[in-house]
Amino acid sequence: MTHFDIAVVGGGLAGSVAAIALARAGRSVALIAPKAAATDGRTTALMDQSIRMMERLGLWDAILPHAAALSTMQIIDGTKRLLRAPTVAFRSAEIGLEAFGYNIPNTALNDVLGKAVEAETRIAVFRSIAEDIAVDADRVRIALAGGEELEADFVIGADGRKSKTREAAGVGVRTWSYPQTAVVLNFAHTLPHQNISTEFHGESGPFTQVPLPGLRSSLVWVVDPKEAERLLGLSLAALSEAVETRMQSMLGKVTVEEGVQAWPLSGMTANRYGKGRAAFIGEAGHAFPPIGAQGLNLSLRDIATLEDILTDRSGARIDARAGDRFDGRRKLDVLSRTASVDLLNRSLLSSLLPVQMLRATGLQILASFAPLRNLVMHEGVAPGHSLSAFPNFLREKIRR
Which of 19, 126, 137, 154 is the most exposed place for a label (fewest CB within 10 A)? Predict the structure, then answer.
């Protein structure tokens, strides 16, 4: 039975980055990554902290040609409600950054990561399904669909919401759903986006345009399921007209590209993010609506924590409680991000006047009070750092 320091189950974006990071941290890694069944037409926005990680791993130079900078992120209240919030623009230059992050097609990300995995001598790739995973106090055993068996000191589940790894470790989940579907597409336009991402808030959810290289953008349009069905039934020409109208022709004439997809919105969080000789990252540990560019960025922070816990150049065996340490260190970040995305999404759906008032007031304060807006921007690109500095920030404002 072949032995590895770490087995990573799942070869998506999170699993691939985890394998690369931990191999470069000196560990032998088995990446169990069956071929993807379909092409992923979505895009991913990586924030500044995640870009720094990609640079550290030597991946960013290959990703950059496919990426579009996000220099301004604006929120526009597109509802027809009595209380409407003002437009709020967050500009990266206000906090000394050229861009908050970059938007990249998932096909390009997968291609770069795939080549990096192939070039990494400490990674052995198994294009097979993990049929059985057994996690005990001493080791992890994995039986593959082709009959091969592996053994590892630690397993990382990056195998999605129905994670076999998480199930093998005896960890349950909490799930919830939303009365919404995300229609996801890419489109060309005749006016330059000027690296501005615009999020229209509507009664059924956000309509979020994010720049791509050239005269192209990606779109996540959150609507109720019946409306999603109607949009998917439109011709590309009719859908292009609908997108242009919803955007108030801000980017000129719109041409929606082939490959429109729809994803029902739901949320999930594992009861633990690690246990014993196992950890769960990406959607094996947490999943929520595509709001605020949180998904992969949160997963990359999972991986950075695993790097810190599992790196050992001396060749020492991984501790049997490494998963418990990971769980303790990731709980606050994951739960706070999950709660904030859930709260924002539900506030858009609520027809209660007090909720609308709170939301409008909050955005009004952000629009008019630069120091607080800067604090929020810092928290968005480097979670945790600005909040730890908040007491000093507050004392300074009180003194003034």
Answer: 137
